[in-house]
C-alpha cells in the first residue's frame, strides 16, 4: 500500500519489519531520521523485542552491533560519511568475523572540507572491506533493498551495506510502499546464526591467524562475494515474485540493446541519466544506461554482458579517487578487459552539486562523438581552480584552499 | 618621516586591540543560545588580556559550539568530530608560543571524544578548554547527549533517557594530573568572564564547564535555577574567585572553598543540592607535558657532537680484535 512518507521513515519502518533484535543509534546527518524513526517504533512497541541503544560514537555503534551479532542477534545500525570512516576498523572486523550485520549508509561526502551533502566518497573509501554494497536508485528501492539485505547477509554470513544517497533519497518525501509484515516474514526467515554462544559447544571468537592460514581465511571473504553474485539475481527474482516490483539486482539496464554509447552510474543520479537518455534517443542518438545496484560484489560478467555491444562507455561517478580518477571506472574497465571499448570517466555531483539533465546531455553527446577526455569533471569551474593555482604559485603561504575558494566564489557572485 | 624597524616592533607590542577586532562574522547560533554568552566573554578576555590575534588559536570539533572559531578574528580550526583536544595538543607542540583555546561540546568531548578528554587532562598541556554543555545534541537536532538529565525526551529517547547524566566535573577531577577545574552558568555573564580569565591565567590544562541554555532543544531546562539564584552556589576564596559586590546581593548561596582541596572539590562536584559555580580545583604545581618533555640540558653543538661520537664509537672495529675493546 502506498503511503506518502519520507524515505528515512520508510526505511525505519521496513527495518522494524525485518525484526532486528539490536539497533545501535548514533546521529549523523543525513542518516539521523532513520534511527530516530526506529526509536519511535521501539517506544510504541511496533518493533519488539528489540534493544535500542544510544551509543557514544560510530565506532561504538558498529562495535555493539558486532557484539550483538556475534552473540546470535539480528543487528542493525546506520551511518554516513565521517561516521563510516570513524568505524572503519570495526567495518573490517565485522566482515572478517563473518557477521551478517546490515547497515544503511546515507551517502555523504567526506571532509575536509566539511560538507554534509551527497556523494559516494564514503562508500568508496570502504568498498574493499569485505561488505556487500548495494546502491539504491530511488527511494522505493532503498526501502526494498533492506529486506533483501538481511536475507542475503544471513544466508552468506556476510555484512551488507545499503547505500542510499543522502538528502536526495533519505529526505525525499513521496508515495512509498513499505512491505507488509506478513510478506517480510515470508521472505526473510528467522535468523539462524552460524555461531552462537552455546555452553555445550564453547568457541572463542577473534583468533589471531598467522601467515599459515591468513590468506585462506581472507579468501573466504572473496568466496562469499562470489556466492553473492549468484544469490543477488535469485533473491531479486524472489522479491519480484512476492512484492511485484523490480528492486535489487546486480544491475539494471536501460535501453542498452542497440546502444552505441552506454552510461554507467549508481544511485539516484541514474534517474536523471535515464531522462537524458530518452531525450537523446528522441534526437536520434543510440544511447543507453546501466545502473549498478551491486558494487560489491562487482558484477564483472553481468556488466560485460550489458556493455558488450557498445562502442564506448561513460562512467558517471559521484566520487573522486585523487591520482586516478574514479573508483568505479577502474572497476568497469576490469569488466571490459580485452575489449577495445573506451571507458570515459566523468566525475560529477561531488559534495551535493546537482547533476543536471542539461549537463548530462552535453556529456553524453560529447562522449557519443568521442569528444571527451578519458577523465572529465562535469561542471567544473576551471577559472576558479586556475585562480587558486595562481595563488599557490604566487606565494608559498597561500592559506587554506577551502577558505580561499569560498572567498573567491563569493566574489564571483 | 621614516620609522625604524625597532620602533615598528615596539609599536607592535604596545598595540591594543578593541573588542571589535576579535569579532568575526555574525554567529549562526539560535537566539538565546548560551554559546553567544561564551563568545562575548571570550572576546572580552582576549581584549583585556591583550591577546594578540596572531598568537591565539581556537580549536573546535564538530557541533553547534564548534562553530566558535569562525566568530573569532584569530587563528581558528574547525576540525573533526571528537578530535579537538588531540588536534589542539598538536598545535601546542608545534607552536608552544600560541595561546590555545579549545571549544568542545558535550557530544564532542563527553561522547565521541571522551577517550581524548581523559588523556588531555593527564598530559596537562597549557591550554584553556571550554566545555559548552547544553546537555543535548543540537546540531543534529535534538538527541540525548551523555550529560542530558535522566528522563530527557529526545528524538532518540522518546521515553526519556534511561541513564543518569555523566558529570564532567567528577570525571575531570578523577583523572591523574588534573590541574584546573571550574564551572559556570551562561546566565551570569560576569562570572563566565571571571572564571574564563582565571582559567586562561592558569599554566596548564584548564577545564571550564559552562552550563548553557539551548532554548531550541532543551527549553526551560535551567528556568528554575535562573529564577531562584539560591539554586546556584558560588564558590569563593581568596585564592579562587571573589564575587563582585553587585553580584553578592543576588547570589547569597556562597561557599568558601579552597581550590587546592581536591577531595572537597570532588565532594562539591558530586553534590546535587545546587549548581556549584566557580573554581573547584586549582593546582599550579602539576607539571605540564611541555615541561616534562623539555630537554634538561641545552643542546649546544659540543654536546651534540659528543653524543654523536659516542654513538658512532659503538661500531668501531679495533685492530687488535674485540678483546681490546672490553
Short description:
The complex is a heterodimer of chains A (413) and B (326). Chain A has 413 residues and is an alpha/beta fold.
Task: Present the secondary structure layout.
The complex is a heterodimer of chains A (413) and B (326).
Chain A (H helix, E strand, L loop, with lengths): L1 E5 H11 L4 E4 L6 H12 L7 E4 L3 H13 L4 E5 L1 H6 L1 H9 L5 E6 L13 H5 L6 E4 L3 H18 L3 E6 L7 E5 L3 H7 L26 H30 L7 E4 L6 E6 L2 H14 L4 E6 L1 E3 L3 H8 L4 E6 L9 H9 L7 E5 L9 H12 L6 E3 L4 H13 L6 H12 L1
Parallel strand pairs in A: 2-3, 2-4, 4-5, 5-7, 6-7, 10-11, 10-13, 13-14, 14-15
Antiparallel strand pairs in A: 1-8, 6-12, 9-11
Chain B lengths: L4 H10 L19 H15 L7 E5 L14 E4 L5 H11 L4 E7 H7 L1 H10 L3 E7 L34 H6 L6 E6 L3 H13 L3 E7 L11 H5 L4 E5 L8 H4 L5 E3 L5 H9 L4 E8 L6 H5 L7 H13 L13
Parallel strand pairs in B: 1-2, 1-3, 3-4, 4-6, 5-6, 7-8, 7-9
Antiparallel strand pairs in B: 5-9
Helix pairs in contact in B: 2-7, 4-5
Describe this structure as you would to a colleague.
The complex is a heterodimer of chains A (413) and B (326). Helices cover 43% and strands 17% of the residues of chain A. Chain A has 413 residues and is an alpha/beta fold. Chain A folds into three domains: 2-243, Thiamin diphosphate (ThDP)-binding fold, Pyr/PP domains (Rossmann fold); 251-377, 3-Layer(aba) Sandwich (Rossmann fold); 382-412. In chain A, the strands form three sheets. In chain A, strands 3-2-4-5-7-6-12 form a seven-stranded mixed β-sheet, sandwiched between helices. Chain A has a six-stranded mixed β-sheet with strand order 9-11-10-13-14-15, with helices on both faces. In chain A, strand 2 (22-25), helix 2 (32-43) and strand 3 (51-54) form a beta-alpha-beta unit. In chain A, helix 3 packs parallel to helix 5 (88-96), helix 10 packs across helix 13 and helix 11 crosses helix 12. Chain A is globular, with a radius of gyration of 22 Å. The termini of chain A are far apart. In chain A, 51% of the residues are buried. The model of chain A has no long low-confidence stretch (mean pLDDT 96). With 326 residues, chain B is of the alpha/beta class. Chain B has a single domain (14-293), classed as Rossmann fold, CATH 3.40.50. In chain B, 33% of the residues lie in helices and 16% in strands. Chain B contains twelve helices and nine strands. Chain B has a nine-stranded mixed β-sheet with strand order 2-1-3-4-6-5-9-7-8, with helices on both faces. The longest helix of chain B has 15 residues, at 34-48. Chain B is globular, with a radius of gyration of 24 Å. Chain B starts with a helix and ends in a 13-residue tail after the last helix. The mean pLDDT of chain B is 92. At the A-B interface, helix 2 of A face helix 4 of B.
Amino acid at each position: 500500500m502506498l503511503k506518502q512518507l519520507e524515505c528515512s521513515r520508510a526505511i525505519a519502518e521496513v527495518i522494524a519489519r525485518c525484526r532486528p533484535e539490536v539497533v545501535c543509534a548514533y546521529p549523523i546527518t543525513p542518516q539521523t531520521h532513520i534511527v530516530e524513526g526506529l526509536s519511535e517504533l521501539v517506544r510504541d512497541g511496533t518493533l519488539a523485542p528489540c534493544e535500542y541503544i544510544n551509543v557514544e560514537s560510530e565506532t561504538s555503534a558498529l562495535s555493539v552491533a558486532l557484539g550483538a551479532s556475534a552473540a546470535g542477534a539480528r543487528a542493525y545500525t546506520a551511518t554516513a560519511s565521517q561516521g563510516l570512516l570513524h568505524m572503519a576498523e570495526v567495518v573490517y572486523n565485522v566482515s572478517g568475523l563473518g557477521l551478517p550485520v546490515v547497515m544503511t549508509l546515507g551517502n555523504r561526502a567526506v571532509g575536509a572540507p566539511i560538507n554534509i551533502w551527497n556523494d559516494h566518497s564514503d562508500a568508496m573509501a570502504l568498498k574493499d572491506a569485505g561488505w556487500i554494497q548495494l546502491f539504491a536508485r530511488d527511494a522505493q528501492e532503498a526501502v526494498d533493498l533492506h529486506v533483501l539485505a538481511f536475507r542475503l547477509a544471513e544466508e552468506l554470513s556476510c555484512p551488507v551495506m545499503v547505500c542510499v544517497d543522502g538528502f536526495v533519497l533519505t529526505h525525499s518525501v513521496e508515495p512509498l510502499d513499505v512491505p507488509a509484515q506478513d510478506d517480510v516474514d515470508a521472505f526473510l526467515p528467522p535468523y539462524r546464526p552460524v555461531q552462537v554462544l552455546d555452553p555445550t559447544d564453547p568457541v572463542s571468537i577473534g583468533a589471531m591467524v598467522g601467515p599459515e592460514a591468513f590468506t585462506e581465511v581472507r579468501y573466504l571473504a572473496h568466496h562469499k562475494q562470489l556466492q553473492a553474485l549468484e544469490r543477488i539475481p535469485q533473491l531479486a527474482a524472489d522479491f519480484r515474485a512476492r512484492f511485484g516490483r523490480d528492486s535489487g539486482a546486480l544491475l539494471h539496464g536501460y535501453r542498452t540493446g542497440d546502444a552505441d554509447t552506454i552510461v554507467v552510474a549508481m544511485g539516484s543520479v541514474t534517474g536523471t541519466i535515464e531522462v537524458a537518455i530518452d531525450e537523446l534517443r528522441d534526437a536520434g542518438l543510440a544511447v543507453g544506461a546501466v545502473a549498478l545496484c551491486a558494487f560489491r560484489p562487482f558484477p564483472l560478467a553481468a556488466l560485460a554482458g550489458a556493455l558488450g555491444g557498445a562502442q564506448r562507455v561513460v562512467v558517471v561517478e559521484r566520487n573522486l579517487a585523487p591520482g586516478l580518477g574514479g573508483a568505479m571506472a577502474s572497476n568497469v574497465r576490469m569488466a571490459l578487459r580485452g575489449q577495445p571499448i573506451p571507458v570515459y570517466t566523468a566525475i560529477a555531483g561531488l559534495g551535493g552539486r546537482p547533476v543536471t539533465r542539461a549537463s548530462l546531455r552535453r556529456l553524453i553527446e560529447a562522449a557519443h562523438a568521442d569528444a571527451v577526455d578519458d577523465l572529465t569533471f562535469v561542471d567544473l569551474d576551471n577559472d576558479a581552480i586556475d585562480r587558486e593555482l595562481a595563488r599557490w604559485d604566487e606565494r608559498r603561504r597561500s592559506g587554506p584552499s577551502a577558505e580561499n575558494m569560498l572567498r573567491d566564489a563569493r566574489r564571483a557572485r | 618621516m621614516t620609522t625604524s624597524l625597532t620602533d615598528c616592533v615596539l609599536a607592535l607590542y604596545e598595540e591594543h586591540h578593541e573588542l571589535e577586532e576579535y569579532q568575526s562574522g555574525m554567529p549562526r547560533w539560535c537566539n538565546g543560545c548560551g554559546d553567544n554568552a561564551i563568545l562575548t566573554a571570550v572576546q572580552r578576555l582576549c581584549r583585556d588580556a591583550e591577546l594578540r590575534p596572531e598568537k591565539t588559536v581556537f580549536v573546535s570539533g564538530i557541533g553547534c559550539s564548534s562553530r566558535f572559531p569562525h566568530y573569532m578574528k584569530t587563528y581558528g580550526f574547525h576540525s573533526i568530530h571528537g578530535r579537538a583536544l588531540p588536534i589542539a595538543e598538536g598545535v601546542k607542540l608545534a607552536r608552544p608560543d600560541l595561546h590555545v583555546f579549545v571549544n568542545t561540546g558535550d557530544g564532542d568531548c563527553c561522547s565521541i571524544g571522551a577517550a581524548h578528554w581523559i588523556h588531555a587532562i593527564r598530559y596537562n598541556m597549557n591550554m584553556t578548554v571550554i566545555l559548552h554543555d547544553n546537555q543535548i545534541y543540537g546540531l543534529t537536532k535534538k538527541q540525548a547527549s551523555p550529560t542530558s538529565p535522566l528522563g530527557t525526551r529526545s528524538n532518540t529517547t522518546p521515553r526519556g533517557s534511561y541513564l543518569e547524566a555523566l558529570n564532567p566535573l567528577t570525571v575531570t577531577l578523577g583523572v591523574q594530573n588534573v590541574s584546573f577545574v571550574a564551572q559556570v552558568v551562561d546566565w551570569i555573564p560576569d562570572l563566565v568572564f571571571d572564571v574564563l580569565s582565571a582559567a586562561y591565567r592558569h599554566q596548564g590544562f584548564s577545564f571550564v564547564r559552562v552550563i548553557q541554555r539551548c532554548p531550541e532543544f532543551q527549553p526551560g531546562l535551567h528556568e528554575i535555577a535562573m529564577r531562584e539564584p539560591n539554586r546556584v552556589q558560588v564558590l569563593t576564596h581568596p585564592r579562587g574567585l571573589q564575587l563582585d559586590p553587585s553580584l553578592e546581593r543576588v547570589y547569597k548561596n556562597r561557599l568558601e572553598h579552597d581550590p587546592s582541596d581536591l577531595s572537597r572539590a570532588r565532594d562539591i562536584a558530586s553534590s546535587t543540592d545546587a549548581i556549584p559555580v566557580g573554581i573547584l580545583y586549582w593546582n599550579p604545581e602539576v607539571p605540564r607535558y611541555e615541561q616534562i618533555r623539555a630537554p634538561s640540558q641545552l643542546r649546544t653543538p659540543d654536546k651534540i657532537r659528543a653524543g654523536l661520537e659516542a654513538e658512532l664509537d659503538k661500531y668501531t672495529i679495533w685492530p687488535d680484535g674485540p678483546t681490546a675493546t672490553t
